[in-house]
Amino acid sequence: LDRERWEREIAAHYGQVLRGLIAVAGGRERAEDALHDALLAAMKPGVVEGIERADAWVYAVGLRKLRRAGWRSRLDVLLGARSASYPEPGLERIEATEVLAHLTPRQRELVVARFYLDLSFKEIAEHFGVSVGAATSTVSQALARIRAANAAREEGQCKSAK
Amino acid sequence: MQEREVELLEGRVRRSLGSLDQIAVPGLEAVRTRRPPSHGRAMGVVGTFGATALVLVLALVVGAQINTWRGALSGPSAGPGQQGVAGRLAPDDRYGLLVAWPGDATTLVDEHGTEIVPPFFGVRQAKTSPNGRYVALWLTTPSGYDVRILDGVTRSLGPMLFATTEQYARSNEGLIWASDSSAVLIATTADPIANSAGDIRVTLRAIDLGGNVRVVGRYTAFTFVPLGWDRGKSTILARAAPDQNGTNRYLRFADDGSGRVVERSVADMPIASNDAGTFVASHPTCPGPGPCRSFTIHDAETYAVVGQIDLPPLGSPLTQPSANWAILFRPRSADVIVYFSRTGTTSRGVFGIELYENAGRGPRRDLGDVAVDAASGIVFSPNAFIRADGSATLYVHATDLKGGEWRGDLIAIPGGAHTPITTGGTPRAAVLLDPKL
Known about the structure:
The complex is a heterodimer.
Chain A: H1 3-25, H2 28-41, H3 54-79, H4 95-100, H5 105-115, H6 121-128, H7 132-161
Chain B: H1 3-18, H2 28-32, H3 38-48, H4 53-73, E1 95-100, E2 105-110, E3 120-121, E4 123-128, E5 134-141, E6 144-151, E7 156-157, E8 162-164, E9 167-168, E10 175-177, E11 183-189, E12 200-208, E13 213-221, E14 223-230, E15 235-241, E16 248-254, E17 261-266, E18 268-273, E19 279-284, E20 294-299, E21 305-310, E22 316-317, E23 327-329, E24 336-344, E25 348-356, H5 357-360, E26 364-373, E27 383-386, E28 392-398, E29 406-412, E30 418-423, E31 426-432
Antiparallel strand pairs in B: 1-2, 1-31, 2-3, 4-5, 5-6, 6-7, 6-8, 9-11, 10-11, 11-12, 12-13, 14-15, 15-16, 16-17, 18-19, 19-20, 20-21, 22-24, 23-24, 24-25, 25-26, 27-28, 28-29, 29-30
């Protein structure tokens, strides 16, 4: 991408990417930090020129930043840092978080990429550094989990109705 | 799974994930210029060198010390009304609210809605003192206007301190407090204020809590609005417009009655000062058709820009000169709170509220959203009021056109935990009812 097209694509898609990161992170603050860091990473010379799809790249890099921030947040807890104890605006009412709650972190990342950001399996493979087969398999396993969770919930509802 | 079943499930997952679109996000510029807590950044630097045991031990020691310093420097301390920084707040009877009932009656209630003083009438402006204990009142009377002080701690309305037939200088707000809460200043004019009257002569009077009155300045302009009074620097801050269409002037008066005034033409509109009178917030005079979507914080002495706050691209400030300017300085600090409309339909509006620490120079803190459903076909925009010790904000909206009841959230600062609250009338000002707060 040239810089101008990058800016246009980011302006158009950052909201969706940020929401995807929020869904994976389970909170706004860390997701906004991760997106901020990803946008910063793209400022380095030569980076943008090597990117083909801005939203996919920012999402993948944002996820890496989130993972790296993971151990820091654990340290925050150890240190009793006040920033770690700030409750954030709730996401409980968002239906998507209910669906994603049944998945492993990796499955969550790929399901959001596939079904929210509309990345193809080929694009997921490229940006996540896995094979197309591995990406397909992870998403399939995630769907199976969601299906099982739905079935269990429906069964539970039937029982309680009886 | 059968292919058809997979297809259906994928469709269902797509629809569920589509609900993520309900999450309001900040503007791109806000994300780009975001400054995460320095604490997190410091930990990130440590992380690049590996999490060795030695570093962990050092981090524990240094981190604990930093937290101690942060605690000391982070503005208002956790008051007794807070149940810890992370805890949800509950309405508390040690915090008071001046509320107006339908009609002309105003009274003082606590956060549970219990009435504390008998109703009084004619309130045109109510301004809380920097220490949170008093509310200065500009009241209309049969013969003109009065200044009286409501004391939250003694829970009583004081006697008339000053009476006049003069009016505010083409402004809804003509009364401010001195930064040490020892006196108020009013800006009034004896000239007619109809628009055709041209310039008006404005008199600035200081009135202390004992009722002693002295003239501290005079000025001639088309409009005049006092903004703040830094007692330490003996300086009164104000905005004036020289004529109906002219650029604004930012003014700094000496409060000693010498008549000294420093004038400065400014391209934006200064609208509010913090209680200490050390910072001034402004909004741009936007030439375009849309609403202005930014605020600037200036050093009160030099008018140099110290902070810039950009609202999200869809954010529209709830600018209401008759109430406030959708930007508030948090009491006992230089933190800034802005609130705005995020998005909405004719049946439901979503309103955001954010805190910017240290005169807009600190990190943005999203204090969460408040959703307002239409009542009688109208989505009532919320207004924000801050507890007089700065520990929480009430983000509340009218439930009907009469304003008999306002509903919304009590939001912990800086935590952001929301607790539903209902006020018995239209909130006008916050006050402390407990001297220990």
